[in-house]
Amino acid sequence: MATHKILLLPGDGIGPEVAQEVSKVLAWFTRAGIAQFETETDLVGGAAIDAHGVPLSEAAMDRAKAADAVLFGAVGGPKWAGVSYAKRPEAGLLRLRKDLGLFANLRPAICYPALAEASALKRELVEGLDIVIVRELTGGVYFGEPKEIVTLEDGQKRAVDTQVYTTGEIERIAAVAFDLARKRRNKVASAEKHNVMKTGVLWKETVTKLHAEQYSDVGLEHVLADNCAMQLVRNPKQYDVLVTDNLFGDILSDVAAMLTGSLGMLPSASLGAVENGTRRALYEPVHGSAPDIAGQNLANPIAMIGSLAMALRYSFGLLEAADQLEGAITRTLAAGTRTRDIAGPGTNAVGTTEMGDAIVREL
Ligand code: ATP
Ligand code: MG
Asked: What top-level class of enzyme does the UniProt entry assign (predicted)?
């Protein structure tokens, strides 16, 4: 049985609390003989600042590079608010993203049946929702040059942002989306605005060409980004994998997130280049360190445990184990187990550790 190398970086606030529940799940898979993990733990964020004076030590960075996947909790908190930018806890995560070359951000929007009832949205709209948005993370208008504000001769100011994409950047993000779709429902929608943007024209052309050459077995649909936003609200279940650029991805993934309920439920993955046969990857909950509830056994560990499920599926190729874990989460919720963030008013809530235990019991 292959051994999967994991670097666990719990971080700050509720990070260590939710990471603890992931450790329980990993231990269960090992005990059950389903998979073999070699897990190392290191400090990141404020915890690393306190111990080493920097938000990520060189040793931790080396371990991240050597691991098959990094599982990241959350960083930051009021204690480190005053420190300089380079030493802020968040700089630890930015360094990981940059040095691991993580150019693809995957944000699933899953709506568990047991929570669809409580959704403020129409139940039939979100019940059973399971889509993944693949957002390009290192290019586009966030980084394109020129990027400036200049003062004109007449005293007005002029601001410029530049959207830049190369075929190489588009191909590699599209390949991530197609590969992902093959492990899911085999459907990709690609969102851009080729009607008004040259980058949109190139995006559509490049995705179409890659599809014809290497992924013709996968369904492909092109959609204008504004129409896509509307479709996500009108009928989100029509999508499986949705691939888009940095800016549209930022907006569309927030729209999709709101279809699902609590921040404490949303996992994410950031993927990089393939090196020596493995794709660099970091998995983390969408939520932050939540200082307001830290240390009180109140955090919902499902976003973090769901991030592990993504690692099982996308980094380790353990598709059945991933299904099994997601099934256990679904059944735990169906049995009525709720942490405070997803418990309705007047409903009994369990703590972080109890939620983790309940999921392991379902496994
Ligand atoms: P960051 O800037 O690090 O993203 P943030 O301030 O935007 O952090 P969070 O730390 O995610 O946001 O917290 C936002 C709110 O959501 C807080 O009230 C927090 O308690 C709540 N929250 C976040 N994560 C969870 C969780 N796993 N379980 C329960 N509540 C959570
Ligand atoms: Mg935030």
From this structure: oxidoreductase
Task: Give the mean model confidence (pLDDT) for residues 210-231.
Answer: 98
Q: How far apart are CA 318 and CA 356, in angstroms?
A: 20
Q: Exposed e or buried b for every residue in 13-41, given b needs 16+ CB within 10 A?
A: bbbbbbbbbbbbbbebbeeeeebebebee
The pLDDT mean for the chain works out to 94
Ligand 1 in reach of 253 Cβ (< 6 A): no
Ligand 1 centroid vs 37 CA: distance in angstroms?
29
Any bridge partners for residue 189, and if so which?
Answer: 221, 242
At the top level of CATH, which class does the domain 1-109+264-363 belong to?
A: alpha beta
pLDDT tens sequence across 263-277: 888 999 999 988 777
Quick one: tokens of 128? 């059973």
Query: Is 203 exposed, middle or buried (CB count within 10 Å of its CB: 0-12, 13-18, 19+)?
Result: buried
163 annotated as a binding-site residue:
no
Is 12 assigned a ligand-binding role in the annotation? Answer: no
Helix 302-314 to helix 352-362 angle (10° resolution) is: 40
Check: CB of residue 294 under 8 Å from CB of residue 13.
Answer: yes
Task: Give the helix/strand (H/E) hosting 271.
Answer: strand 267-275
**Which superfamily does CATH assign the domain made up of 130-259 to?**
Isopropylmalate Dehydrogenase (3.40.718.10)
> Which of 45, 50, 38, 75 is closest to 60 using CA atoms?
45
Tell me, yes or no, if the pTM score tops 0.80. yes
Identify whether the C-beta of residue 75 lies closer than 8 Å to the C-beta of residue 89: yes
Distance from the alpha carbon of residue 303 to the mean position of ligand 2, in angstroms: 14
39 or 127, higher pLDDT: 39
* Atom number, ligand 1, closest to the C-alpha of residue 303: 27
- To test the pocket of ligand 1, the residue of 75, 263, 289, 338 to mutate (highest count of ligand atoms within 8 Å of its CB) is 263
Active site residues: 142, 193, 226, 250, 254
Domain boundaries defined on the chain: 1-109+264-363, 130-259
**Which ligand has the shortest distance to the CA of 306?**
1
Q: How confident is the model at residue 120 (pLDDT cuts 50, 70, 90)?
A: low
Between the CA of 262 and the centroid of ligand 1 the distance, in Å, is 10
Segment 229-246 shows an average pLDDT of 96
Which ligand number lies closest to the CA of residue 76? 1
